[in-house]
């Protein structure tokens, strides 16, 4: 299981504290809020770790009982079983590849990595580290739904620095390959960086930001990295960042030029998310007695419900009424019941995926751009 102890300047939060140095100490002073998503991720990591340990015989005396482990997990289903199997297979494939160019590679699971040479008291835990001559591989298992990019990912780069500190004198490492394995988003992304470029980034970019963050200095800066910040609901800089859209004064869209609309589109999703976080914070504060001018706490709307469904069903049947309905399970429910692989083998001929409704997304989105009448016309000219 992942360690409980966390560094103030952790690898997992590096994307935030490197962009917003003062946030590091503030977040470290506040309690962690456990969510069902975090707990589910912890369970998935524990299962993934156990499977890799069994596969490579990295256990103390006997193989880990997967059955016993899953029975004690707070969250577990067939999807988690399938995705952790796929993760173990990915690790195995990358290790086999390493053996082709190094006679004695080593594989480390849940490895403590110390990068305090560059970040004050900096350390983290790498899900999987494969050390070999020529190439160092860092593999990070992500079970969440928030898409994680591998390209120049600060968390992965910090893990790589920690691994270099421990093993560069033993192995002749030239290149670092960093892989994000995020099965629920069908995201298996890889980035490579030379050892020289990584060390240059560490000295020119990382160290100055870490020095500021360690002292609680530097400027607050809002952006996408605010998503997991503990003060995202009350941060003044973030409020200024989102309220900057107010300069458009709710003008009708047809009066805005394309550049202005692009700016609004870029911030719209984050603006809605921020507003919801502020509402959640305000509700929590109001429940604890805080008064907000112009607002009051009331009971929300509710729907009627049966006190006990089974008791009602028996009563309805006794009066000659059928209280039940029957319908075909959803595809997702069927896949969970029999497994994705078996479902695809038996029933793929009965399933179709129609084209989705067009949506406007950032250019970084991996989906193929739709063809429009205007684009077709421009291509024909």
Q: What does the secondary structure layout of this molecule look like, with pairings?
A:
Blueprint: H1 14-19, H2 23-28, H3 36-55, H4 66-71, H5 78-101, E1 106-114, E2 123-131, E3 134-141, H6 154-167, E4 173-182, E5 187-194, H7 195-215, H8 236-243, H9 258-287, H10 309-318, H11 331-338, H12 340-347, H13 373-380
Parallel strand pairs: 3-4
Antiparallel strand pairs: 1-2, 2-3, 4-5
- Number of distinct helices: 13
Number of strands: 5
Low-confidence runs: none
Oligomeric state of the chains present here: single chain
Overall shape: it is globular
Separation of the first and last Cα atoms: 60 Å
Adjacency order of strands in the biggest sheet: 1-2-3-4-5
From N to C, what is the helix and strand string? HHHHHEEEHEEHHHHHHH
Question: Please, what is the average pLDDT?
Answer: 88
Strand content: 5-15%
For the largest beta-sheet, the strand count, sense and barrel status come to: 5 strands, mixed
Alpha carbon gyration radius: 25 Å
Going by helix content, strand content and strand pairing, the class is alpha+beta
Helix fraction bin: 40-55%
């Amino acid at each position: 299981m992942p360690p409980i102890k966390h560094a103030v300047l952790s690898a997992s939060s590096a994307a935030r504290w490197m962009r917003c140095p003062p946030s590091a100490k503030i977040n470290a002073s506040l309690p962690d809020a456990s969510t069902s998503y975090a707990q589910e991720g912890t369970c998935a990591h524990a299962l993934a770790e156990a499977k890799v340990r069994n596969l490579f015989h990295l256990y103390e005396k006997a193989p880990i009982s997967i059955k016993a482990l899953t029975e004690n997990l707070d969250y577990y289903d067939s999807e988690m079983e399938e995705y952790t199997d796929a993760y173990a297979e990915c690790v195995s494939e990358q290790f086999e590849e390493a053996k082709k160019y190094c006679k004695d590679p080593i594989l480390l699971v849940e490895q403590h990595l110390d990068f305090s040479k560059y970040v004050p008291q900096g350390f983290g835990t790498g899900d999987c580290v494969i050390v070999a001559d020529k190439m160092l591989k860092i593999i990070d298992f992500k079970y969440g739904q928030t898409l994680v990019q591998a390209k120049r990912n600060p968390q992965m780069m910090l893990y790589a620095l920690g691994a270099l500190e421990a093993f560069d004198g033993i192995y002749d490492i030239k290149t670092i390959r960093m892989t994000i394995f995020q099965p629920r988003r069908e995201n298996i992304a890889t980035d490579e960086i030379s050892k020289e470029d990584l060390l240059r980034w560490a000295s020119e970019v990382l160290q100055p930001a870490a020095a500021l963050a360690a002292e609680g200095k530097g400027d607050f800066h809002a952006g996408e990295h605010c998503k997991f910040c503990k003060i995202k609901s009350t941060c003044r800089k973030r409020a200024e960042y989102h309220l900057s859209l107010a300069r458009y004064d709710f003008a009708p869209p047809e009066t805005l030029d394309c550049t202005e609309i692009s700016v609004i589109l870029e911030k719209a999703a984050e603006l809605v998310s921020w507003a919801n976080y502020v509402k959640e914070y305000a509700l929590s504060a109001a429940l604890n007695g805080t008064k907000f001018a112009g607002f009051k706490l009331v009971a929300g709307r509710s729907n009627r419900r049966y006190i006990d469904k089974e008791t009602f069903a028996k009563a309805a049947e006794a009066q000659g009424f059928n209280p039940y309905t029957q319908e075909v399970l959803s595809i997702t429910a069927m896949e969970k019941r029999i497994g994705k692989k078996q479902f695809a083998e038996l029933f793929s001929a009965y399933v179709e995926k129609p084209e989705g409704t067009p949506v406007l997304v950032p250019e970084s989105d991996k989906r193929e751009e739709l063809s429009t009448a205007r684009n077709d016309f421009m291509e024909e000219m």
